[in-house]
Every structure is written in C-alpha cells, then in structure tokens.
Here is the input.
Amino acid sequence: MWLSPAYRRTALTAVRGYVLLRRREVWVPTWAGWALLALIGAISLWGFAHSVHPYLAQTAPTGHGLFVVEGWLPDDGFSAAVEAFRRGTYERFVVTGGPIENRACYPGIPDYATRGATLARALGIREAELAIVPAPASAQERTFRSAVSVRQWAEVSAGPIAALDLFSYGTHARRSRWLYQLAFGDSVAVGVLAGRPTSYSPDAWWRSSDGTKAVLSELIAWTWVRLFFHPGAPGSWEEQWGPRTEVSGEKGP
Here is the structure.
C-alpha cells in the first residue's frame, strides 16, 4: 500500500493524538562563539587546577589546646607535625588511628596510633607530652571514628577542652577537620594544619599520577561526606559503629 510522504510524516509525529516530534529552530554558536566558549572553559580549568589543592589542603590552626596527629601520616609528615607542635602552645601531642589491616607492613604494631607514637618518640616527643588514642575497628568512617575516640579520651583524661589543632596530610586536611568538628561540636574550636606532600608538587599536582589521584579521590570523598555522611547523635550506637545492618547486628565490637 502506497503512503504519501505527508501521511508518513503525520504518522511518525502523531500516535493516537499524542505529538511525538516537532520541528524547532535551534541556535548554535558561530566560530567566534565556539572560540569564546573554549576560552571560558580553559580559564575555568586553569582556575580549578590552581585552586583545588590549596582548598583541600587547608591550613587554619588555632595554635593552642590539644595537638592531634593522624597516625597514618608518612614519616616526613610526622617530622613536620613535631615541628608544628613545638611552635605552638599545646597541652598534649595526641596520636590517633585505627587498626592496621596489613600487619606485614608494621610487624608487632596493632594500630596507627601506636605506630605514630613510636615515630613521635623517636623525634623527641616526651612521654609526659604524648597521648596514644587508638580507634577500634568499626564500620564507621575511619577519620570520624578516630575523632570520636579522641573526644571520648578527652572527656575522661583531659577534661573540658576549648580548642584543638589537627595535623593531617595534603588534600586530606579539609575533610579531616570537618569530621573532627562534627565529632566535637561547635563548643570546641577545631583548627587544622596540612603537611606538605613530597611525592608530588602541590603547585603542579596534575603532572603526576600521585598528585592526580590525591586530588581527585579526596575531592570525591569531600563531596560525599558533605552530602551523604550522617553519623548519628553523639554517643549513639550509629556514631561509634556505623549504620545498623543485619551483618553488623546490634552491638559494636
């Protein structure tokens, strides 16, 4: 059966009275417009590349209170942490961190808090200045769980605190500070210092695989915690052990 072109067009654009396609006029950029868009994109990319690392590797110390160090830091990070501790007027050098999953890397050392304390002693931190606060194994976000452990330790051993500075490393700093502030609440001023990475240049992080991985992975992690991380009320089961699931059950480790 022969169908006229007009009829076929009508059949394609309308089925039982519903219009499926319609014709519209579309504006597209000229070559000058494309050039302008490309220029705007290049400037935006340049601005992102030069601002994202300083944004994530935040440094904003209070200069007093507790000095908390994440125990997973590399050796050069601990050297910088001890120097920063000596420059401030801090009460204690607190090392924290969860269990070490690969014990072959650190034989005889059960957690990153103990590993960090060993480095701190070797760098001149005295026993009277040192506090070791390990975090237990938990389904909770690891940095946040370490922050909760430090808060619980402070409530028992250090008394009320008004401020603390967290020493982190590179692009991890901003997220760590936010998680510690979340754990301690608004009554405690949480500052942060970011150790400078040595495996890549922070000013040209995109030129190395280590720098690219550090920036992009931490940018994703930072976005995730701000949008989706809800740890539960202070002191709750969820705050300490993570979301309740059939696997985790009703009790923490």
